[in-house]
Give the backbone structure.
Amino acid sequence: MKKVVGFIGLCKNVGKTTFLNKYIKEKEKYLITSIGWDGEAIDHIFGIKKPSIFVKEGSFVCTYSNLKPTKSEKISELPIENQFLGKLEIYRMKENDIVQVAGPSSITQLKTFLKFAENLEISEIIIDGAADRRITLSVSNEIFYICGPTYSQNEQKLIRTIIGIIEMFNIPIIEPNQQFIEIKSINKTNINTLDENQKYVIEDFSKIVIDYELIPKVLKKYKIFVKKKPEKLNIVINSFNADLMKHTLNTSKIKEEVGRLISNTHALEIIDLTASNSLP
């Protein structure tokens, strides 16, 4: 199975595409897609400016036919179609270029896409997530969470959110011989109806649909397990506030405070996007 790397931004304008470009600059022979619509000059929903996505010659892009990269050739066509954007197709880049990427938007579509991707000669599959869309968590081996002041200017809120994400990743995988009750999700409705004496299991982290800040409290009260989870978590802290167009966070302080509060970080990398060398 090919390695799948997912990117999740906590909100719009948080720096996800900026970090994504830094990440793929160091990579060769990858396939990139998005569960949203990324790389357009102006966000088609919110009307705000967005950074472009730069991809290398020889890499692959999975996007809809109406967004076909100019300097590319079609490799394959998936049985997925969008009313406005056309058919979902995979293209090989003939030159370095900027691209718009829109791809599978559901778990079923993601699984179909990954089957097609297995036939390509690539080192990894990159899934660019939409703002806090968590379905990427269902299929990824490694996850990058990007957070920053456009999510919250309050450093303590950011720290609580980051700790919630880390605590979520520390949820154990259920053992085969354990007795448990399977539930579809953990949400605002059912978190007050669970039994503290029972063990509950969910499919994966995408089924946790409460605020990240609430996760430590829920895990302290209830015995929660998952069937599967990514192997590694990366937290990317961005100090730049795209709304104010200036740096407004002390990322070193946040990183230090999170490290002080969290002890179990064996599969965790905290990355300061402000630093010049920001890749692990």
